[in-house]
Each structure stands twice: as structure tokens, then as C-alpha cells.
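Raw record, unedited: NAD-dependent epimerase/dehydratase domain-containing protein
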Amino acid sequence: MKPGETVCVTGGSGFIGSWLVRLLLDRGYTVHATVQHLDDEAETKHLESLDGAQERLKLFQIDLLEPASLVAAIHGAAGVFHLASPCIVDLVHDPERQLIEPAVKGTLNVLRAAKENGVNRVVVTSSISAIIPSPKWPADVVKDESCWADLEYCKENGVWYPASKTMAEKAAWEFARENGLDVVVINPGTVMGPSIPPSINASMAMFRRLLEGCSEHYVNFFMGPVHVKDVALSHILVYENPAASGRHLCIESISHWSDFASKVAELYPEYKIPSFPKDTQPGLLRAQNPSKKLIELGMCFTPVEQIIKDSVDSLKSKGCI
Ligand SMILES: NC(=O)c1ccc[n+]([C@@H]2O[C@H](COP(=O)([O-])OP(=O)(O)OC[C@H]3O[C@@H](n4cnc5c(N)ncnc54)[C@H](OP(=O)(O)O)[C@@H]3O)[C@@H](O)[C@H]2O)c1
């Protein structure tokens, strides 16, 4: 677990994945990054132009449901960062096919390929969506890594993205236990900040909708913001630190969408930010510095003001706002 090694990043073309590939290359790693379409410049060009990419980046085309494609990407890697997973919140008409199958079977296929190829450690990117929605959690206790999303609630209410992340993370822990594979998990909050890929992902699209005046509350999808660079760095910290184990909440603060929106309104009065009720996430206890496990490993989280400024600058530079 040290710079100079070869590591594989699934979902390397994505919002978080691109930052992770960039930081790994900066630290001297050789990186196998996966994309879904090698012939699509929108997935490859931003990775190929990163510093160190010419010498130490190799791209692989994968299908999460096609084990042979994963073996090719993972072969020769000492570590794997598994980020690839569908991030669809709206327009879910076939949850099994669109979300659950690629999230759960995809994770198991990646872990199986890692085990068979002698990988030392796998960092799995789960989510706060495997922590919330959790309506039965005690109202006076701050949510932490011991809290799990309520799958029955998710299924009854058609909240399929959290269902997919929860099922995938549980499957990962079961596989790790049964097969003696070293797995650590990162559970990021709502990730925002500078976007390296040419198009924006689902969480940056949420932020753009807020700037456009959308009054959606994201009751089941928001627990607080986190900077994309911090999320990428957290993956590396838990990979490089042999003592890191279990789940790692990765979030600047536990806060409500209303708190975030009022901070955006204060910093950018020129946008028509709607006013929200105080508690847009009913029952969610607010907390500063909730990511204690990552802070103990050396993480220093970017304040919310900077997350907002970097996100606005990024959306402006892409002509998205
Ligand atoms: N953004 C957030 O707020 C947030 C919060 C918590 C957790 N996460 C998790 O972080 C990870 C990365 O998310 P992101 O925000 O970076 O989203 P993203 O930009 O949409 O990236 C998702 C990545 O997964 C790949 N992918 C999706 N379905 C795939 C499939 N069936 N086969 C192979 N690759 C597939 C995508 O490839 P293409 O580029 O080819 O489509 C892309 O590289 C995901 O596991 C997500 O659940 C995100």
C-alpha cells in the first residue's frame, strides 16, 4: 500500500473517480482506470490529459456485469478502488436492471476478481445513502457509521438509489467476511466541487437545480456536503493506512439541505435560492466534524463555503450556469 504500486480505479471516468485518478497519479501510483466506452472521448480525454497519465495511466473498458472485463482491469493491481455504480435518482422505471443489479452484482464481480488476482485491499465507495433514510434511528442520537439505511422503507417508498447502495455495501461486507478479503468502505455525503469530466454528475446537477431556483428538498438523499477532492483523498488515506477498517462517514458536517441552501443564498444573492423550512430532513440531528474516523487518519475537511465557491466556479467554467 504505497506509491509506486499499480492500483485499479473502477468508475475512473466519473466525478469522484477522475479526482481519485488525478491524486493517485500525483502520488506516483500506476493506475488502471475503467470506463464504459473506450471510444467515447467524453469518458477518456480528461483522464488522458492528467499529469503523469502518459507514463502511468492505462484505461480499460468494462461492463460491471461482465467478469472477464473486470479481470483484465484488475490483473496486476495491488489495490482496487471500486467506485463504478449507476447514480440515477430520477427516472427509475426498472430499479432492478438500472440500479440494483449493476450495484450489487457489479460489486461482487469486482471483489471476486480482486480475490482471484491476489489484491491486498479493496476500497469500496458506498454512500450516506447506505446510512439514510433510516427513520427508526433514535431521534436524540447523531447518525454515524453504525446506522444503516432502512431497506424496507426504501422499497416501500420507491427510493431505489439508497436501496442499491445499501444492498451493494452489505453484499461487499458479506463477501469480505466469507472470503477473507481486506475491504474498507467510504460513505461520502453529497459530493460537490470542481468537476474534471466534461459533463456534470448527479450531485452537481442537484446543486445546479438549487441555483436555478428548484425547491426540491432531497429528503432521502441529503445528509450534508463534502468536497470532491476530500472524498478522493479519503479513499487514498484508508488505502494507505493498514489500521483503517470498517465504514468511514465522509462528510464536512451533518446538516440539512435548508442549511446548505441558506449558505448558498448568503454567498450568491444574485441567484434565486428558494427559502426552505428549517428542517428539510426531519429528524436528522445536525453535527459538526462527524467524520471522526477519517479526521483521526489525518483528513482535514474543506469548509462548506469553499465547497460552494468551487462548485459555482466549476459550473460557470463549463457553461452550466
Ligand atoms: N456524487 C455523490 O454525491 C456521491 C455520494 C456518495 C457516494 N457516491 C458514489 O460514488 C461513486 C462515484 O459516483 P460519482 O458521483 O463520481 O458519479 P459519476 O460521475 O456518475 O460516476 C459513476 C461512474 O461509474 C461508472 N458506471 C456506472 N454504471 C456502470 C456500469 N454499469 N458499468 C461500468 N461502469 C459504470 C460510470 O461510467 P461512465 O462514465 O462510463 O458512465 C462512471 O465512471 C458511485 O459509487 C456513487 O454511488 C457518490
